[in-house]
Design brief:
about 20% helix, binds guanosine-5'-monophosphate, binds zinc ion
Length: about 110
């Protein structure tokens, strides 16, 4: 998808990546909600969590392993971190390229708002 902002970031046409491999890219959120707020995205364009299926199980597991790696690198792993996917309108999805939020560095509230 040429006009998708997260595709452009993943292709390094804008912004800067903090991590990438053959499957995923990660970058700092432009409007961070915590001292650590990283977005992890598949390099292939997928709109929503709802759109992934059996063929994507490896990708989904891989994203969580990458989240762990970044949490450790950013120094929030032991204190605690949260991984969030907002899917569709009522959950607050605003960018239509699947992304996992990695949040850490402060005490989190529960339930989420
Ligand atoms: P959502 O609301 O879809 O779960 O999360 C979208 C996230 O993308 C938001 O946290 C927002 O700040 C972030 N975001 C939107 N546009 C950009 C951008 O151009 N660059 C970066 N780095 N983050 C973005
Ligand atoms: Zn995209």
């Amino acid at each position: 998808m040429t006009d998708c902002i997260f595709c452009k970031i993943a292709r390094k046409e804008m912004g800067s990546l903090i991590y990438e491999d053959e499957l995923v890219a990660a970058f700092d959120d432009v409007n961070p909600q915590a001292p650590v707020h990283v977005l992890i995205v598949p390099k292939n364009h997928v709109e929503r969590l709802l759109d992934v299926g059996d063929d994507d199980k490896l990708l989904l597991g891989h994203i969580l392993v990458v989240a762990n790696k970044i949490a450790r690198e950013r120094g929030v792993a032991e204190a605690g971190y949260r991984v969030v996917v907002n899917c569709n309108r009522e959950a607050g999805q605003s960018v239509w390229h699947l992304h996992f939020h990695l949040l850490g560095g402060r005490k989190m509230g529960w339930p989420p708002g």
